[in-house]
């Protein structure tokens, strides 16, 4: 009887969030331009790289950390870009503005959909829902300046007073 209790106790140590994150990652189908890395013993922390093959950010590699919260899937995972980049939907601290990570999150969404959503931000940046207002303003009003600023920033240069990380 004690052995059964010990066994059931260890099962209780695994959270619903852990089980769901592990399931999401096991069912992950590769997305071109996305690479994910995680320790199978800890699916709550994920590293992701995004390599867009077209658009403004083509030829660059961006790294993200994902922290899956303990109340996942009821709460969205949290993503942060590790490089300082010039992007309307990613601020200078790496926070990501993606509707499914905020207001449109639903427990039925998966990590796969979020990975695809982040890649989509690089292929089609959205000036209407910005975290970086300067980049959004350039994208919507001055597209040639936006293109030039993205290129400068990806090479590790400055845009205005801000220095960016080399990603290309």
From TrEMBL:
UniProt GO MF annotations: ATP binding; transferase activity
Entries under Pfam families matching the protein: UQ_con
Active site residues of this protein: 97
Keywords for this protein: ATP-binding, Nucleotide-binding, Transferase, Ubl conjugation pathway
Domain of life (superkingdom): Eukaryota
Domain spans labelled UBC core: 16-159
Protein family (similarity comment): Belongs to the ubiquitin-conjugating enzyme family.
Name used for this protein in its record: UBC core domain-containing protein
Gene source species: Eeniella nana
